[in-house]
Amino acid sequence: MSIPTLYILNQNYSTWSLRAWFAIRSLGLHVNVVPLLVGTKEIPDIRTKESDTFLAQAGGAGKVPTLHVRKPNGETHVIFESLAILEFLAEEYPSLWPADKYERAYARSLASEMATGFGHLRNFAFIVKADYPFELVEHLYTPAAEKELLRITGIWEELRSKAIQNKENDKGFLFGHLTALDSMYSPIMFRIRSYKLQEKIPFPLAKAYMEHMLNTPALKEWTEAGLKETEILPCCEMFPENPAKV
Fold it and tell me: Which strands sit side by side in the sheet containing 66-70, from one edge to the other?
């Protein structure tokens, strides 16, 4: 049986790679992971002609994550974009979405909102190595950013308050068990931790959920890998003149 291949970008920087990778790792799937590392002498940064050519090996769209799977007829099928990969996985592992159709629709709505929204919080660069005092980025914590943080963590509080009522099946995730929605929210937790935004969260269950996620074996593995990387992407650093270090 052919083993799927997942192409990802640098683990220190790539939020979208993390989303698909987290679900795959958490499900315990056997997948070949191919890191396409940029920030090297040959490919010094992304969004350049050189990086576009380099990333094209993942597939025609030149995007990561990209999952290559073998179809029954032997052809390779290429799936790109995290949500598309999560939906593909859910065909085989339906527990990646809630069983109840209303909860499932809600989870998909929230996943789409996370995929396309929260632009103000995205100003807090995703960098696994980052560990900055809030004062350094306080100017970015605008009323709009605060509103987005309260929106996300309020959702976590709401869902966890329901999940804990079913103690027998509660595994600490938003719907009790792991779902694609947990994958979609995984990168924002690093942003919150890296810039000390957890101090701005007024919801205890949301804080506990974030700590639970960051301490899962998958996210600990991702963190360790990101910390070991030596490549630097200037366009992805919060302070390019002084890149984040361990």
Answer: 32-35, 5-8, 66-70, 76-80
